Sequence to fold (312 residues):
Amino acid sequence: MDYATTDIVRPFRTAVVPAAGLGTRFLPATKSVPKELLPVVDTPGVELVAEEAAAAGADRLVLVTAPGKQGVAAHFATDRELEHALAERGKSALLEKVRNAPGLLAVRTVLQERPLGLGHAVLQAERVLAADESSVAVLLPDDLVLPRGVLDTMARVRRRRGGSVLCAIDVPADHVGAYGIFDVEPVRDAADPNVLRVNGMVEKPAVGQAPSTYAAAGRYLLDRAIFDALRRIEPGVGGELQLTDAIALLIAEGHPVHVVVHRGIRHDIGNPAGYLRAAVDFALAREEYSAELRDWLLDRLGVDRTRQAGAA
Ligand code: UTP
Fold:
């Protein structure tokens, strides 16, 4: 396999964040507010994944946006008037917060005219890649994967084994029906038992029929061959091009695909129930909110705090 020298040092430079979907699970809010801008406490999901990409060494973020979702890109633009107003009022902590997103990495947007699927969204990013970029990271802003660092592990796996590397979380056996589930086998000489070879993927299998309990978790390190595969697959329901179909095609053609099982937290903030859990989790981790929120939650749930304290 022939990889550019830059890849040996840094397996990817560009992180693609698809943000052109309709967000139907969040209607009516997403009629006018892009799902990717809904705040987890005070920071939009798209900023959290941009931070993750920057921490993993990406220097460029390609945002795939839709007509009417300009707000997503605007979040990464410098707002001089706002900065000036905050500076004048001596609000330095807030100033730092509003400067965070524009300062993370260079942002480029590409338009997906119609929501023709995640695969179609990723395909739009190809035209802005440099000729020597042989791989690209894709981060779904719906998925928060914590603690950070899984992209680094995925990059190490690609360096060692080539091909494409995906991320999975181990879900309870009776929850497999809600996810894309990997069909995997152990890698013979893997030092890390959380690195597995992928033979295929099943979308939302029935309980008892799933090939494993490893579910796709919104992080992909894809070989550039993915774009060619995306052009060769057939659109499915609603004319949508599925990223998983293109990955399946690559596997069928002998392209190595591995998965890194992330043994941490994954919040799916693309639906109200998962979003609420993430908000509570993030708020409990913030000094300014945690004590009061915890007390309120215990009261709201009718938990006797004196007994709790006694049991501790
Ligand atoms: P989802 O399927 O979770 O997003 O795609 P959605 O279609 O917006 O949500 P629902 O199902 O209607 O509630 C995961 C990510 O891929 C993007 C979405 O914006 C989201 O960040 N996406 C999806 C696109 O960019 N284009 C598409 O055509 C589909």
